Amino acid sequence: MKALVVDHDRTARAAVKRLLSHVNVEVVEAENGLVALSQLESVDPDFVVLEIGMPILNGPDCLAAIRQSPGHADIPVICITASGTRENVYKMVSLGVADFLLKPINPVEVLPRIKNLLVRVAQWRQRSSARAVNVLLMVDHDPQFLAFAKPLLESSFEVHEASTSTMAAMLYKDAHLKPSVVCLAAGLPLMNEDLLVDVIRNMAIETGSHPPQFFLLADSEDVPAQKAQRYGGVLRKLTAPQAFVDEFRRVVLREQSPAERLRHLVREELRSELVSTTQQTVGVMLGDGLTELAEPQAERTGDVGTEVVLSDAAAGLALCVRIVSSRAHIEAIGSAVAKRAVTFEDGASDVLGEIANTVASRLRASLLSRGFDLQLGTPGLLGAPAEASLTGAEDLSAHFRCASGEEFSVALTVQVTEAAAAPTPEPEAVPAAAGAAAVDDVLF
Predict the structure, then answer these.
(1) Higher pLDDT, 410 or 121
(2) What is the CATH code for 2-130?
(3) Which range among 38-52, 54-68, 129-143, 224-238 shows the weakest confidence by mean pLDDT?
(4) Which pTM value belongs to this model?
(5) Strand pairing partners for 101?
(6) Which label site among 47, 61, 139, 229 has the fewest CB atoms less than 10 Å from its CB?
(7) Peptide bond into 104 cis (omega under 30)
């Protein structure tokens, strides 16, 4: 693994290099942002460590240029600084950073964070490779069907085949580029297809990969509903070549509408990004840490909040980013940021809007790298408890507690209009939810 370390201070670069040597990361050094940009394509690093305050081309401007680069727009970036203006820090956060380290760097504190980052770097590399090659794993104990299906699908996929569940699990485990789609025949012996789905999904999570999409191979669509709902669809094993290809395109490639693909992406892949983005944004504003909670623990009365809508009017598709808490907690957070006592109507709502806008901007950049071009709207207030409550209908939610005790929740909800309700046929594309067109991403 390789890192590009950008800092005008040679001693600081040497310190980062020593730190990264403990996790077997090769380091290429650059003394300023301009040199870093000139090296980006030729060095092809796995991640970038970037100082904010540099001469010639500073950190925020360098990061903005990286985000416009054709091959590294979503590369993970770690920012480091001894000090930084609030404006520069906000700009870096909004452009998407994987972590934010303060000098002098404490190896005992930072090394575990670096190790966690390397998992996300592997995810980014996998997605970058997956843009060029889509991998399909076919699992069926009938060798004749595998011999029939494989050549029909090789124009769109790199096809791997397995005749047993054990063989399929080992193929997935050992694959450098993990399959984005897995088709499993009904009635697999020993380890059945349902159990194999669980095994592969667990391996994906343990290795930091995006779980593939699973489709059931069956002789007919007459599959019990409880079983069918475990899969992305039921693919009939038709014996006529063109009929099978048409069925595969209908079920696997584009049965999902844009809204369904976005919903799958939000539910399956964006949690780590939502959490880290919120923690970094609020952490910078408060100058203190933020803890994720499994569920809200403080009593919520008189909820207020704000929302930002990311939308694609042409596709009739939107993602609502909503931040909600009690009025007292929002006012306490706003007062801590403003460094004076404020009410929700006089200052605290502006702070909340700034948080929501930054979080939404980060998510927009991540979604853009996955093929969803959603435009950023203006934060809007949710003044009444009925408006601000979280109903459980959201597609993803996360809950946080500030070091001083205030709690709030962030929720993402995919919204659909009639224009986006019908599936959009795009036979040459792979479902975005399979991880083939990406996150992790600009951000983590």
Answers:
(1) 410
(2) 3.40.50.2300
(3) 129-143
(4) 0.48
(5) 80
(6) 229
(7) yes
Tokens representing 358 are 């930054």
- DSSP class of residue 343 equals B
Residue 433 per-residue DSSP state: G
Nearest-angstrom CA–CA distance, 208 and 247: 31
Helix (H, G, I), strand (E, B), or coil: what is residue 270?
A: coil
**CATH entry, 135-253, from 1.10.260.40, 3.40.920.10, 3.40.50.2300, 3.90.1720.10:** 3.40.50.2300
**Topology adopted by domain 264-434:** Chemotaxis protein chec (3.40.1550)
Amino acid at 350: D
Please indicate whether the domains covering 2-130 and 264-434 agree at the CATH topology level. Answer: no
Q: Could you give the maximum distance between any two Cα atoms of the chain, in Å? A: 74
Name the residue among 366, 376, 358, 370 with its Cα closest to residue 442. 366
Determine the residue type at 142: D
Q: In angstroms, how far is CA 24 from the centroid of its own chain?
A: 25
Domain spans of the chain, in order of start: 2-130, 135-253, 264-434
Residue 345 token pair? 């109507």
Cα separation values, 435 from 97, 249, 342, 371, Å: 20, 18, 44, 11
Q: Single out the residue of 271, 261, 213, 193 nearest to residue 432, CA to CA.
A: 261
Which run of H or of E encompasses 312? Answer: strand 303-312
Sign of CA dihedral 329, 332, 337, 343: positive
Of 422, 437, 423, 428, the residue nearest 255 (C-alpha): 423
C-alpha radius of gyration, the chain, whole number: 24
Q: Are 201 and 153 in contact (CB under 8 A)?
A: no
H or E stretch at 376: strand 375-376
| Alpha carbons 75 and 119: distance in angstroms, whole number | 13
Taking alpha carbons only, the member of 27, 211, 18 closest to residue 110 is: 18
Give 416's pLDDT tier (boundaries 50, 70, 90).
Answer: confident
